[in-house]
Amino acid sequence: MSKLPCKVLVVDDEEDILLAGRLLLKQHVETVKTTSDPNKIPALLQEYGFDVVLLDMNYSAGATSSKEGFHWLKQILQLAPATTVILMTAYGDIELAVRALKEGATDFVLKPWQNEKLVTILKSACQNRSSGTYRSAAKAEQDKTAFHYDGFIGVSAAMQRVYQTIDKVAGTDANVLILGENGTGKEVAARALHSKSRRAGSVFEKVDLGAVSETLFESELFGHAKGAFTDAKEDRAGRLEAASGGTLFLDEIGNLSLALQAKLLTVLQSRQVIRLGTNKPRPIDIRLICATNMPLYDMVREGTFRQDLLYRINTVEINLPPLRERREDIKLLADHFLKLYRKKYDRPDVHLGTSTLQRLTAYHWPGNIRELDHALERAVILCDGNELQPDDFYLAPKHLGHTSAALPDALAGEDYTLEALEKMMVQKALVKHSGNITHAAKELGITRTALYRRIEKHGL
Sorted alphabetically, which keywords does the UniProt record give (predicted)? Predict the structure, then answer.
């Protein structure tokens, strides 16, 4: 009996099911792999490029809601959109089957399965794939290459380490500190941790601490009672209470003053908040994720960041690499952004020339992925022909000179307003110091917080 040229992955937390599936299916298809850990799905998809995934719906002990199965169905279809997913469960019903099909599953199998029925479903899925019903072989290879992982795009070794760390820590409630330069995707990492956690069905609350003033900090984070201050016209829960049951993401935590750091530490230690104007503690249940582009360890040595707060928030650290350290991902990212802006600006024939791609790959990208995104959008808007040329991109040299050609776009047309000059100086300092906020702020003679606000103001 000839086997179908089909690659099948079976995912189930019961070893008996995996063994039975492997013994049955290897008689009919060329490749059968099994795993009891759904967190390994992204790596296995990348390595083998499976045609079909048989996916169990429940993995936690005693779970019957199928929430985990729908979560992993979504992940598989994001990572490899053309993969055929067949869901399996011992707790099936008509409503569940209908929902599974609506969310992208091809079929639904009840356990214990009937061997003949399962083989028939599997053969049909494999034959549809080989006939091109779902995608061509070339498209399959393209999808494998442009590896997506919960909002990230990249196949570099540096990003693989990030993916592995997220997979390991996501299922826990450990506090996570995400470090990285501006534009490296710190919020994307935080949302990936949340989407893979047991709290995925609950709230993800983001607080940008760089944008919260000291006077409003307690009211914003801890809440207030009616009459606590002039504008407190009603009781209001703070962001910490709002995040209870889910994930709290504190972005740019390095911007907090020492006084505010002490107040935040007290809340994180006690897991209770007291609203302004009251003395009643309110318990909170949060998964804490923090992020910053600042050198917190240097700040601890300088006495500008509390060591005890650092140890409270950095149970696990994730360091996001700058784009210049993952150059093999630049083409994938450029293709992704180009696809978006072709559609947005109705320019379907725009493409990157070979020399342009070489220049993009060689550039040092001080603004990282955000800068690449903006550069592609601008080039698509302004280019004259259908092939994007190197001259369609403004790529700042590593050391900005004093000639007009080296100045940012804001000054190219002799724009000498104070705002344009400020933007130029901030950009120049950032480029000179390779995105190091501490060194750039020192050269400009301003605080890190002030520099961060100017970066946000000018979209750098």
Answer: ATP-binding, DNA-binding, Nucleotide-binding, Phosphoprotein, Transcription, Transcription regulation
